[in-house]
Write a structure and sequence with these properties.
The structure is a single chain. Helix content is 45%, strand content 17%. By secondary structure, it is of the alpha+beta class. The strands form four sheets. A six-stranded antiparallel sheet has the order 2-3-1-9-8-10, with helices on one face. Strands 4-5-6-7-11-12 form a six-stranded antiparallel sheet, covered by helices on one side. It is globular and about 75 Å long.
């Protein structure tokens, strides 16, 4: 709902108030309704300052503006997000004697912290990034929600700490040089996102989800307050399909109900896939007015899911709008969107989601979206079924199977589950990375750091089996990229996105459900798959997200629930293999690009001069990613 900015432990001679206000104004899109700052130089000459830009969602009265102060003036708060269960928490605090001045969840958060300290975090259901300063102790807490729905970027510079909702505001205040982070570039090409809690600018990092930072007298500590790893142990006690369906419906319906609390109009993204369709159906059940729904697709045939979205829209009589875009508009918006994100775009559908957000802003301010279901309900079938490949490769000797495995993996032997996972999860293989990137941005030391990240996640749930290790890793790494995409594409248009499948209660429940209830063999599927690989099995011989689909068979037709997963198709190979090939060449093979030392120009030239792009969507994706990387370099000019 907002943009936040802060600096603590600073020298007031280095940063003036006008510069701070200008940095805050860079996030006007995140909060166009109100803006204010708290600026304080203490007796020892140390500057602490908070800034806030507000998008009014709950309690529209100006009295709820931020920064917000406790009754005695001791605590100062800036907050981005929503505490969905704030009404229940308010009742508890009122019963304990607290008197409220507003109807906002912001004041409930502040009062909860005053009463319970940092332990208040365990009481919240919501999405949040906030900072609280204790003027009496000269201490600051910076907090990010459990799963990373809302962003918090940090930069440490000597004794001072900068934090913000967007990197651009830190860059505006930082005295450090802008240097490109090679680890982020390498990770981006391999996994589409920086995965080391870092950014593309060296020295600017992300506060990990489920963590808080404590800063006092120039010393900072970062502590974890929540992690879902404990939930897997409950899978040992299978309570049966009926029980899990009942719990799933109760929890998800609560998650949707909470996310419909707003004092402004709201609606839903409706792609026609399972997740957005379930959310739309639940919203319609809980709303007395027609739900406003939106979908987007491309002019090219086969690159939209309009017919399935219409089925759901007609069933629930929603106010439905379809948006169609062209390739030319895609490129134009891609350049604009990068300036909002402060990073290359990770996946092609960020542009259409942004365009859809701009359109829906004409009608609503809050939108519910379906991100997060695939990670917790085994929705990525070819990956969640791939542990079977790993086991088969230990014993199967059938030459045809081994030949197909070699074609898929490039090998038939893996030293460990992690080696196998990195092979199937990596978006760009090592040979292609060498072909596209210069050595400084593609070297073994960078790969080792990235591997250690994954190893730590696998080790944390080492006793829960390979499939659960994948699920945990997806929730801790992959989901973050999706959430950053949703936050950026919506907040750039002053729209707040809410994600019911990322409710921490639902995540804990889903991780407690045995795998067979989430990834279910079809009748005879296991036997038929004895000599098949995961991508040959998925959605042919099994049903990903089975428990979710089974739970809502009464609300949605089989043609929506049980059709093959389509994702969000974007005709990149048509564009970059055709009319936008010169656009890619102009950016990636320019003299300016060559001076950066990021790219292997010869390898890129070979790809662009070949006919492969027209037929290979995956290769076109890599070119699009490199173009995005160059666009962010042109925008921020890192050295």
């Amino acid at each position: 709902m907002c943009g936040i900015l802060g600096i603590v432990g600073a020298n007031p001679d280095r940063i003036g108030r006008a510069a701070f206000d200008s940095a805050l104004a860079l996030m006007h899109h995140r909060g166009p309704d109100e803006s204010d700052t708290w600026w304080h130089v203490d007796e020892s000459g140390v500057l602490n300052a908070f800034g806030h830009r507000r998008l009014r969602i709950i309690d529209l009265h100006p009295a709820s503006r931020q920064p917000m102060y406790s009754d005695d003036g001791r605590y100062v708060l800036v907050f981005n997000g929503e505490i969905y269960n704030y009404l229940e928490l308010r009742e508890e605090l009122e019963a304990a004697g607290h008197a409220f001045r507003t109807r906002s969840d912001t004041e409930v958060l502040l009062a909860s912290f005053v009463r319970h300290g940092i332990e208040c975090l365990h009481r919240f259901i919501g999405m949040f990034a906030f900072a609280i300063h204790d003027r009496q102790r000269n201490a600051t807490w910076i907090v990010r929600d459990r799963l990373g729905i809302k962003p918090v970027w940090l930069q440490r510079d000597g004794d001072q700490l900068l934090f913000a909702s967007e990197v651009k505001s830190i860059l505006a205040l930082s005295g450090k040089p802008r240097e490109l982070n090679p680890a982020a570039v390498s990770s981006y090409l391999s996994f589409r996102y920086p995965i080391l809690d870092d950014s593309f600018i060296a020295g600017i990092e992300s506060l990990p989800p489920g963590h808080f930072l404590h800063f006092q007298n120039g010393t900072q500590t970062i502590s974890e307050y929540w992690d879902p790893a404990h939930a897997f142990a409950a899978q040992a006690d299978d309570r049966g399909e009926g029980w899990y369906i009942e719990q799933l419906r109760e929890t998800l319906e609560s998650a949707v109900r909470y996310r419909m609390i707003a004092d402004v109009p709201l609606g839903a993204y409706l792609s026609g896939g399972v997740d957005s369709s379930v959310i739309t159906a639940l919203m319609a059940q809980q709303s007395s007015d027609p739900v406003k729904t939106f979908t987007i697709g491309f002019e090219e045939e086969g690159y939209n899911e309009f017919e399935y979205a219409r089925i759901v829209a007609e069933r629930y009589a929603t106010e439905h709008r379809e948006i169609t875009i062209s390739g030319e508009r895609y490129i134009e918006e891609m350049e604009r969107l990068i300036s909002f994100k402060d990073a290359p775009l990770a996946v092609p559908n960020e542009v259409p989601l942004h365009l859809m957000s701009r359109e829906l802003k004409k009608y609503i301010t809050v939108v519910l979206s379906g991100e997060g279901a695939d990670e917790i309900f085994c929705g990525y079938g070819r990956i969640y079924r791939s542990p079977g490949d790993f086991e088969k490769l230990k014993s199967v000797t059938d030459p045809d199977f081994l030949a197909r495995a070699m074609q898929k993996y490039g090998t038939t032997t893996f030293a460990s589950e992690l080696d196998h996972f990195l092979n199937i999860y990596s978006y760009t293989d090592a040979a292609l990375k060498r072909r596209l990137l210069a050595p400084d941005f593609n070297n073994p030391s960078l790969d080792d750091r990235i591997r250690q990240k994954f190893q730590g996640l696998f080790d944390r749930v080492a006793d829960q089996g390979y499939t659960n290790q994948i699920a945990y890793t997806f929730e801790k790494v992959h989901l973050l990229g999706l959430l950053q995409r949703v936050d950026m594409t919506t907040m750039a248009t002053s729209v707040e996105a809410r994600v019911p499948f990322v409710d921490h209660r639902l995540v804990e429940l889903a991780f407690s459900i045995p795998i067979d209830h989430k990834l279910r063999w079809n009748e005879g599927g296991a036997a038929a798959s004895r000599l098949l690989l995961s991508d040959e099995i998925s959605e042919v011989h099994d049903t990903p997200k089975y428990i979710l689909k089974r739970a809502y068979e009464d609300l949605l037709p089989d043609e929506v629930l049980y059709r093959r997963k389509m994702g969000f198709p974007v005709p990149l190979n048509d564009w970059f293999g055709g009319r936008f090939r010169d656009y890619a060449r102009d950016h990636l093979l320019s003299a300016r690009a060559a001076q950066r030392g990021i790219y292997n120009a010869n390898g890129i030239r070979e790809v662009l001069d070949s006919n492969a792009l027209e037929d290979d969507h995956a290769l076109a994706m890599k070119i699009r990613m490199l173009v995005n990387l160059e666009l962010i370099c042109e925008s921020y000019q890192p050295h």
